[in-house]
Write a structure and sequence with these properties.
heterodimer, A: Cathepsin D, subunit A, domain 1, 10 strands, about 15% helix, globular, B: 3-stranded antiparallel β-sheet, 5 helices
């Protein structure tokens, strides 16, 4: 099982790659439309977020269609937040850069929020963390994600 | 039996205890686009919960629930296969939604489309 370890820098921060979902990219290719390249950004592992969230600017940049609407308990965002959902492909990038060590979710619904004020472009919520073991080691100033 | 008469003072306490509701621009757009689908989901939610479908994922179009899957990815895949690049409505079946959408309805008042 891959293990991703890192230092705590204002929380447990990982690099992710975000792009069109596998199903959406297939539909784009069928329609002979180009698939926008994936974006790499930093994301906070956030056990307080019910759903993985992505900053609205990234959604716009990728031109992602809506795939629903959901209420989510987002303490960091102030109570119950209703926002649009978009299906994406999300990969948590392992520092080794070996593809077999990455965690890839090819079809995942993410909530579109304005996160810039929080200082993050994405929050990895419990829907994604449910597939992992996550150890937050405050005294050791590090974290470990196993998947 | 003691009954409490609402007074401005205890109404204020109740309002202060109510969770804060926020709706983002994408949430407002989704509310317009998926007006029918949200109404369908909320109408069917009690029956879905009674059938033990909580935690599964429903694909809703207009007045119909087209399918229910264990994995969100399968519901998204089915939605994209059927509707291509159009907006699709995939919703996790959640017992808390009755209360949460009621909160949203109170928050939006007459502007609420469902």
């Amino acid at each position: 099982m891959p293990v991703l370890k890192g230092p705590l820098q204002n929380g447990a921060i990982v690099e992710i790659s975000l792009g069109w979902s596998a199903a959406g990219a297939r539909d784009l290719r069928t329609a002979l439309r180009p698939v926008p390249p994936s974006l790499q950004v930093s994301a906070l592992l956030d056990t307080g977020a019910e759903i993985t969230c992505v900053d609205a600017s990234l959604i716009r940049q990728l031109g992602l269609p809506l795939s629903g609407m959901a209420p989510a308990n987002m303490p960091a965002h102030g109570g119950v937040t209703f926002a649009g959902l978009h299906d994406v492909s999300l990969t948590i990038l392992h520092p080794s850069r070996k593809a077999r060590n990455h965690l890839t979710l090819p079809d995942l619904s993410v909530l579109e929020l304005s996160l810039a004020a929080l200082g993050y472009r994405a929050l990895i919520g419990r829907d994604t963390l449910a597939r992992c073991r996550f150890l937050y080691d405050g005294p050791g100033n590090g974290f470990r994600l196993t998947y | 039996m003691e009954t409490k008469t609402p007074t401005p003072a205890n109404l204020d306490v109740a309002a202060a205890d109510a969770p804060t509701v926020q709706i983002t621009p994408s949430g407002r757009e989704a509310l317009k686009i998926f007006e029918k689908e949200i109404a369908t989901y909320l109408r069917e939610l009690p029956a879905l919960l009674a059938q033990g479908q909580a935690g599964r994922h429903a694909l809703v179009k207009g007045d119909a629930i087209l399918g229910i899957w264990d994995a969100q990815a399968d519901a998204l895949e089915a939605g994209r296969e059927r509707f291509g690049l159009e907006p699709i409505f995939v919703k996790a079946i959640d017992a808390r939604d009755t209360e949460r959408f009621a909160l949203l309805k109170r928050h939006l008042g007459d502007a609420c489309p469902y």
